[in-house]
Amino acid sequence: MAYENTVIKDRLVKLREKMAQEGIDYYMMPTSDFHNSEYSADFFKVREYFCGFDGSNGTLVVSKDFAGMWTDGRYFIQAENQMKGTGVDLYKMMEPGVPTISEFLSKNMKEGEVLGFDGRVISTSIGLDLEEKLAKIKASFKIDKDLADDVWTDRPALPCHDMYVLSDELCGKSYKEKLSDVRKKMEEYGTKAHLLSKLDDIMWLTNLRGNDVECNPVALSYAYITMDEFILFVQEKEVTAEVKAYCDKVGIELKDYHELTAFLKDVKFEGDVLYDKRNTNFLTFKTLSEKAKEAGVELKNKDNPTELMKAIKNDTEIKNIREVYLKDSAKLTEFIYWVKTNVGKIPMTEYTAAMKLDGMRAQIPGFIELSFPTISAYNANAAMAHYEATEDNAAEVKAQGMLLVDSGATYMGGTTDVTRTIVVGEISDEIKKHYTATVCGMLQLGAAKFLEGCTGRNLDPLARGPLWDIDIDYNHGTGHGIGYMLNVHEGPHSIRWRYTPNAPEAVLEPGMIVSDEPGVYIEGSHGIRIENIVEVVKDTKNSYGQFLRLQHLTYVPIDLEAIDKKYMKPEQVKLLNDYHKAVYERILPLIEDEDVKAWLKEATREI
Amino acid sequence: MAYENTVIKDRLVKLREKMAQEGIDYYMMPTSDFHNSEYSADFFKVREYFCGFDGSNGTLVVSKDFAGMWTDGRYFIQAENQMKGTGVDLYKMMEPGVPTISEFLSKNMKEGEVLGFDGRVISTSIGLDLEEKLAKIKASFKIDKDLADDVWTDRPALPCHDMYVLSDELCGKSYKEKLSDVRKKMEEYGTKAHLLSKLDDIMWLTNLRGNDVECNPVALSYAYITMDEFILFVQEKEVTAEVKAYCDKVGIELKDYHELTAFLKDVKFEGDVLYDKRNTNFLTFKTLSEKAKEAGVELKNKDNPTELMKAIKNDTEIKNIREVYLKDSAKLTEFIYWVKTNVGKIPMTEYTAAMKLDGMRAQIPGFIELSFPTISAYNANAAMAHYEATEDNAAEVKAQGMLLVDSGATYMGGTTDVTRTIVVGEISDEIKKHYTATVCGMLQLGAAKFLEGCTGRNLDPLARGPLWDIDIDYNHGTGHGIGYMLNVHEGPHSIRWRYTPNAPEAVLEPGMIVSDEPGVYIEGSHGIRIENIVEVVKDTKNSYGQFLRLQHLTYVPIDLEAIDKKYMKPEQVKLLNDYHKAVYERILPLIEDEDVKAWLKEATREI
């Protein structure tokens, strides 16, 4: 008899009972928190609870006699294994003949039937698409019920951790100044109110921080802004006495996180309302739009003004970021030394190496948390885009090949992100060729000088050029923005090359910081990524405009054991030597151990 | 007493009489033919006739008691001079406080008043904007009257020159094959009819050519395409016996050029209609849309399918283009030799130098016409974007400084475009620095290797980089497409860097050809532009995608007298030496004169 996963089957039985009680024919469970955060807390893992699949992308749809889970190509094998015996069918997204969820529902739902989902975990664009499709077949939906709440009896609590206040000195700009800038933008757009749902934007604006999302120092929150009020919706328990005193002092009115919907149902709009469709969940959007219709005002969909303001770091932020990056660079340099001197001598796995690095970072004064789970991937594992070493599956790091380590942390004074691929033993000439080209790409982009007005699409080929020249590409962007004591990924700018019709691009502006991370990934063999963070700084200004250039924030040696000059142009050699000279000068004062100092000198020698 | 231009004043009196007769309160005269061609024939110079201003951009608006002419910053001084004593006011476009034409009309026209213009010389987007504005103030318009016709008694005739047929062998693809491709696209778009107004597209599709627009080998024409008919509207007198026989043979139905509007008023649409808003004049658009409304079908605004098809040159075209570019390059090389050996010895002006070059080109077998009026600009004149040397104003070319020559021709087998800046005497070190950077930019872009999917915005900084590095930019695009025995400027691709939200970009595809023309323009001092034409060719194809690269079509020496190695990176020196080696090898066999041969060897020497 085939294996049956009775745990999951029982859960689905209970879900279906609940659905019947609520008059819901199909129930949909995607993968998101209420704010479309990069990481979802356990509280939100409803889909995993009801089908067993725990990948980072998947949507489960359940009806009386059907259960199907949609996921993408990264997870077909994992999903099949994890859902064995559950009776849940796997729908392979983007495969020929496989319907999308909205196609499936359009075809299978009958007139008068009801689709249910928690409208807080569905994006507005997906919600609107479903609304349109359901209207065509005269089906309807219920979006205000989270059915898991009753069925999932041992559900983890909604994350709820103490918030804290950052001083104006640390932020470089007070909440009041920032709010005044936001209100100017609201006026410019002809709006009188603004609903802000994006957590890092709310944190940036209020100079508050929280701890409700893994690796993102943010509190679950919403903000409602008018020309004379600012209401912050957060869980009451998160508001420490310090936070309360600060809010009272600066004029932030506090309401409970769960009151937002009720509040919006009662609010009186005195003019058009600004919101950002990309970052507003469907329930909030629907509540807003009903209210706006009632009040005869318009909902204006614009990028949150805070997004661009947050991306352009002020002088204080930049000063602190530069310092923090030097400390973080010095620590990573010490880690590289540790790996190189210990590999083959002590037991070392991808996992233990990552633990070692995380522990070293935690010793840096002002350390708050990792900015993302450290990626530590040995040899062929480094070629896998979504490889994650756990304690159990981690490969042993031997004195052969390379270890790719992508890591970073948030400190008082900044959030870091850096990747080095460390030679731990013999490597082939092919690897040296790939490594050298990757380094040349990183350095070429890092040395870019350009006119204000350029976007990442203009600059991306500088990083890819040396790889394209040897018939290689990498299937990811070259660069993303990074927050200030905030999320390690932020917009609106990026460094990518592909053209997408009508996709907005953000111009690179002085004060922005962005990653510069080309790579080579050869399946079954090796993976290389070299990532520095660079800042956009002003150069000459003349009648042609304002020239800008990129300037490194990261100062960690490039592994010369993997560099072969024969693959470099003379000016690329110069870029590398110049960079290494700067690494040595800036990092040396931060390193105490004499052995590491001696090694650093050698590791940054002129070639 | 102030000077009065009685000639213009009398013309305006007659125009106003005509306006009164027709019940027109305001009459508007822009600068365009019926097809928005780059060059307008004398027949279309109505604005110039009624106000005296003959610049390339201007719109005249006349009412009973007002006459105003709108033009841009290039022409403020010229317009003021030319319109002196005419009573016509100058409206300086884009200057603070100056209304646009539609703002002016919105403010000054009264309810019930009528705006008149020839709807064939107004673009659809301008027409629609005016329509909306006039509706708001309850004014209306008449678009089917060309009032100049009656008033301008000695008006030049509409251009009307013999058309001719290109063989399928010369075109590489028959009209029938091309038509079949167009019909496939029409089907893809769900349309049953397609109105084509763009002259070079019509010529490309039919393998016909004409001579109605200066430097563009095109006939004034429209094409109406359905799934079983192809109607070509051309002036009857242009249809030679050869053209008639060809059309009969391939199934092109001929109607008179002037019958289009009447035809469209009678036509029966059997489905949606494809048209390209950018290239359809307002009268045609209005006729089409009324008819579509009547028939209950939709007008679908899409880029003409012919635009992209035309841009991707087929193997025959590429083969012929390569040959033609070599011949053209050899002739320009001979010209450079002539300039260098004769300057300071014989009388030479910008104008006579251009005449010399034009005459030399005309000797190349297969020469048809210049592809644009040759630009010949000496020293500081070369810094002016719109400088045009005429016989009267041309500067004398002395044995000092540089002569910039931008020129090209259409031959049986291709259309060329090339710019060289020729050293004719002493030049400063600053000029050498600028010249060297310009050459490096041209060569760097010309050596680009990239993945299919790139657009010109990804590549433009390769050309600008060496100039940006020395705080210099140029205020024009880096590259434009070029027709095959057609217009010297064609889309859809280009090489530009600036981001314009929602502006479509065309991906660079194998078979496209594009110019590569960086420059430096220092007002009052010097102007440098170096332009090669390059083709997009396939390189490696692997799991990352199809790699492409650029390859030179132009092989003309770069002036080594203006190159200083101290301003070059080693690989830029290599690019220049490699290019010069190719120039020597390819051009030498085409040159007969022993002195030129000897000079060529020296001019392409390794540095």
- Principal-axis shape of chain A equals globular
Share of helix of chain A, binned: 25-40%
Low-confidence stretches of chain A: none
List the strand order in the largest sheet of chain A: 4-3-2-1-5-6
Strand runs of chain A, count: 28
SS-derived structural category of chain A? alpha+beta
Most extensive chain-chain interface: A-B, 36 and 36 residues
Q: Give the overall pLDDT of chain A as a whole number.
A: 96
Strand content of the residues of chain A, in percent? 15-25%
Straight-line distance between termini of chain A: 67 Å
Please describe the biggest sheet of chain A, giving its number of strands, its sense, and whether it closes into a barrel: 6 strands, mixed
Give the assembly state of these chains. homodimer
Radius of gyration of chain A from the CA trace? 26 Å
Number of helices of chain A: 19
Note down, in words, how this protein is organized.
The structure is a homodimer of 607-residue chains. In chain A, β18 (409-411) and β19 form a beta hairpin. The radius of gyration of chain A is 26 Å and the shape is globular. Chain A has 607 residues and is an alpha+beta fold. In chain A, α14 (315-342) packs across α15 (350-362) and α16 runs antiparallel to α17. Chain A is built from 19 helices and 28 strands. In chain A, the strands form eight sheets. In chain A, strands 4-3-2-1-5-6 form a six-stranded mixed sheet, sandwiched between helices. The termini of chain A are far apart. Chain A binds chain B through residues 449-451, 453-455, 457-462, 464-465, 468-469, 471-473, 497-499, 501-502, 504-505, 507, 539-540, 542, 544-545, 547, 569-571, and chain B through 449-451, 453-455, 457-462, 464-465, 468-469, 471-473, 497-499, 501-502, 504-505, 507, 539-540, 542, 544-545, 547, 569-571.
